[in-house]
Amino acid sequence: MKIINTIVEGGKATAGPPLAPALAPLGVNIGQVVAKINESTKDFAGMKVPVKVLVDPKTKQFTIEVGSPPTAEIIKKEAGVEKGGGNREAPAGNISIEKAAAIAKAKRNSLGKSPKETLKEILGTCLSMGITVGGKKATDTIKEVDEGKHDSLLK
Predict the structure, then answer these.
(1) Cβ-Cβ contacts under 8 Å for 147 (sequence gap 6 or more)
(2) Computed from CA positions of residues 74, 79, 81, 87, in that sequence, does the dihedral angle turn out positive or negative?
(3) How many angstroms separate the CA atoms of 33 and 96, rounded?
(4) 45-82 core/surface letters (b: 16 or more CB in 10 A; e: else)
(5) pTM of the prediction?
(6) To 10 degrees, the CA torsion angle through 27, 33, 35, 36?
(7) Cα dihedral sign for 145, 151, 153, 155?
(8) SS3 label, residue 25
(9) How many beta carbons lie within 10 A of that of residue 153, not counting itself?
(10) Which sequence spans correspond to the domains of the chain?
(11) Is the CATH number of domain 2-66 3.30.1550.10?
């Protein structure tokens, strides 16, 4: 089994690099692989998504495994921004605490030991990106999470 790891924009993989040069020597139908990747990642439109293509070189059969988009990509999409901000005086964008909690639930298997810890990691990413949460600095929201003010969102 041969494994090709790549990152594609959701629903927009192409038959060019980086896929074609990796797949061509294996003799698989690149068009079919690209179509399957695009079908599998269409819900992540506008986000970069990790994808594994597993190919059996003997039979030319393949399977696609789609990973979870990076946390920063999800936050950018929710905040409606193209990138985080370096200027901390003016926020790059804003998401609600409910959206942050939803991201934490989606990322629960890959981050944090508890739902609260996972939410704090999401808020930390917001902080580093210059994204406010509920119109407040992420540090203020982290304090509220520590105080238990948002526990109801984590159930």
Answers:
(1) none
(2) negative
(3) 37
(4) eebbbebebebeeeeeebebebebbbbbbbbbbbbebe
(5) 0.70
(6) 150
(7) positive
(8) helix
(9) 17
(10) 2-66, 71-154
(11) yes
The 10s digit of each residue's pLDDT in 19-75 is 999 999 999 999 999 999 999 998 888 888 899 999 998 999 999 999 888 888 889
Tokens, residue 24: 């061509």
Residue 88 tokens read as 């901390």
Residues in the chain: 155
CATH class of 71-154: mainly alpha
Whole-number Cα distances in Å, 37 to 19, 78, 89, 100: 11, 23, 40, 27
Pairing of strands 2-9, 93-95: unpaired
Tokens of 32: 């079919």
Three-state DSSP class for residue 41: helix
User: Are 49 and 7 in contact, with CB atoms under 8 Å apart?
Assistant: yes
